[in-house]
Design goal:
By secondary structure, the chain is α+β, with helices and mostly antiparallel strands. It has 17 helices and 21 strands.
């Protein structure tokens, strides 16, 4: 309760003078049925550039947040509660042992108009399009980072993938992907896996037309052709991405209104959180995700003179996300478990969360799976509490007494905001203080950072993981050794630390085949514990998501995955905002 009150006071101080009149949207909202409003441009910023907008090569959150408005798959998640919803499949059947899934596609769904089609007019989507995309997913290609979602699971996926490596693709394709008719698709699995529907909601399973691949090839990185509520109108890397309303979108709301409601979405790419927040204050942005710690620090001394209420909405939720540091297990240095354990014991996560993050987050003293999963026993996993004595004993046992002989180590991290650098500097200091190890920081652009850690060039790096779908399996999958490519220089998007453990793999593989949720979660927990005992990674903190939202924004729910679906977001008129504020002031209690 104290924390919530503190945040509210801080926000009041920061933005109490901000006026809603600063925001202008076209000719103003147009009212539809059921009290919704049409029109306007939703504006948001990302502090990192996107890496790729091609569905099979989306491996970071910025690309995902943009393309989630452009592309669609068979199913999708609810922005409100992450439950599964029908998307291009209006319904589906699952057999008794969850080894066969049959999807019934909507009639009349069309790809966006694009030059890749004759006459520039988008054509209808059929089951053959999904078969084409799923076959591409099982094809070796530098631009395909998603094979892991079908690998070992879908019948014939592994065999077809190997055939493409050999240069002789099997003529029958992937045997587990079957087109029954134009609007019916069947997917057969090698084993029971009830989480398959969650997998099918990821970007790797979105549909796109063969015509676009034929025309644009690798340039699909910026040329997007999907079926979603918005199409890519302007894509300028590092500058702006503008998505315009798809006038031929297939969906309607419960009142019969066509969606989406807003006319466009604009993404900008200011690199500093402070600048982003100032733009929000001016009304030039409709939402800010994550708060700049340095601005909260600036106003802590002004709390005694707080105002009566924030001029915008605040959204907070525990996150399905983990901030962690990776070790390259195939290096001589970090192949030593004792070194990895020493590093883990040397970090004071409590102080990082309390002082560096100002309480935004939760110390990662358990496992790789975040606490935000309701039915997962995260407290049943013993991680690493701060213990400098044990840290030095482990390092001595590893052959480096008091850090003697340990090489100067480079910690690689990405640019974009100051938070990552602040945490890295604290970790640099703690490793020096508690292990007598010298750490140098190397800050680089996001794309280069990912390329280095995925191709084995980095030994020690900062990274994070936000769930692709709401299942603990999505986090534990990061440590599953079958994802490791044969060569260190080969790209390893999943399991970039290249951790190998027969015990972990056995437990994880058994969990994938377990249909009973309680038993599956227990297998997950056991696998999580094995990884922590091995110090497979160095968890730092579990995220909490904080968002600031202008008061005239409606239907933009926050969720633990920061999954964004703007198809039903709209702006209310300014006079309604004022009436809403008046009601809130009447309900707001006085000072105590």
């Amino acid at each position: 309760m104290k924390r919530a009150v503190l945040i509210s006071i801080i926000f009041t101080l920061m933005f109490g003078s901000c006026s809603d009149d600063s925001r202008k949207v076209g000719d103003g909202p147009r009212e539809g049925k059921g009290g919704v409003f049409f029109g306007g441009v939703f504006k948001m910023n990302e502090v990192e550039d996107f890496r790729n907008l091609y569905p099979l090569n989306i491996t970071e959150v910025v690309g995902h947040r943009i393309t989630n408005q452009i592309y669609e798959g068979l199913v999708k998640h609810s922005q409100k509660d992450l439950s599964l919803l029908p998307s291009l499949a209006e319904s589906w059947d699952v057999n008794e042992d969850a080894t066969s899934f049959t999807f019934y596609l909507r009639n009349g769904v069309k790809f966006h108009d694009n030059e890749c089609f004759p006459g520039g007019k988008g054509r209808e989507v059929t089951a053959e399009d999904f078969k084409y995309c799923f076959t591409k997913l099982c094809t070796v290609d530098p631009d395909n980072q998603g094979f892991w979602v079908f690998k070992g699971r879908v019948k014939g996926a592994d065999e077809y993938f190997q055939s493409t490596i050999d240069g002789n693709p099997l003529p029958e394709g992937v045997t587990g992907i079957k087109v029954i008719d134009d609007y019916t698709l069947q997917i057969d699995l090698n084993y029971s896996f009830s989480g398959m529907l969650q997998i099918l909601g990821t970007p790797f399973c979105w549909v796109f037309p063969k015509e676009a691949v034929d025309k644009y090839g690798i340039d699909m990185r910026i040329n997007c052709v999907g079926t979603g509520p918005f199409y890519a109108k302007t894509v300028k890397l590092g500058d702006a991405v503008i998505l315009a309303k798809n006038q031929d979108y297939w969906d309607t709301d419960e009142y019969g209104n066509e969606v989406p409601y807003v006319d466009a979405i604009k993404f900008t790419f200011l690199k500093e959180k402070k600048s982003e927040l100032l733009e929000f204050k001016k009304g030039n942005l409709d939402m800010v995700f994550e708060l700049p710690i340095e601005m909260i620090d600036e106003i802590m001394g002004e709390l005694a003179d707080a105002g009566s209420g924030a001029s915008f909405d605040v959204q907070v939720t525990p996150a399905l996300a983990l901030h962690y540091y990776g070790f390259q297990h195939q290096s001589e240095l970090f192949s030593n478990k004792l070194v990895r354990q020493a590093f883990n014991y040397a970090i004071d996560r409590e102080s990082i969360v309390t002082y560096t993050l100002q309480g935004e987050g939760r110390p990662a003293i358990y496992g790789i799976v975040p606490p935000a999963f309701k039915d997962y026993d995260f407290e049943g996993v013993e991680g690493y509490n701060f213990d400098p004595t044990k840290a030095m004993l482990k390092l001595t046992e590893a052959g480096y007494p008091n850090g003697k002989g340990f090489p100067t180590l480079t910690l690689q991290l990405n640019s974009g905001g100051s938070r990552n650098v602040q945490i890295a500097e604290v970790i640099q200091k703690q490793l020096k203080e508690h292990l007598n190890i010298d750490i140098e920081l190397n800050v680089m652009p996001w794309g280069q950072h990912l390329e280095n850690l995925e191709t084995g060039k980095a030994l020690f790096w900062r990274t994070g993981w936000i769930a692709d779908y709401p299942d603990p399996e999505n986090f534990l999958n990061l440590l599953y050794s079958p994802h490791i490519p044969p060569n260190l220089s080969d790209k390893s998007y999943i399991n970039s630390v290249r951790y190998k453990s027969e015990e972990f793999d056995s437990l994880f593989a058994a969990s994938l085949r377990e249909v009973d949720v309680v038993k599956r979660n227990e297998l997950y927990r056991q696998a999580d514990q094995v990884a922590m005992d091995d110090a497979a990674i160095m968890p730092i903190y579990y995220y909490e998501h904080y968002r600031l939202l202008q008061k005239n924004v409606v239907n933009f729910d926050i969720n633990p995955m920061e999954y964004r679906d703007l198809s039903r977001v709209y702006f209310i008129p300014k006079d309604m905002v004022k009436r809403k504020e008046a009601k809130q002031k009447k309900k707001r209690p006085g000072k105590r």
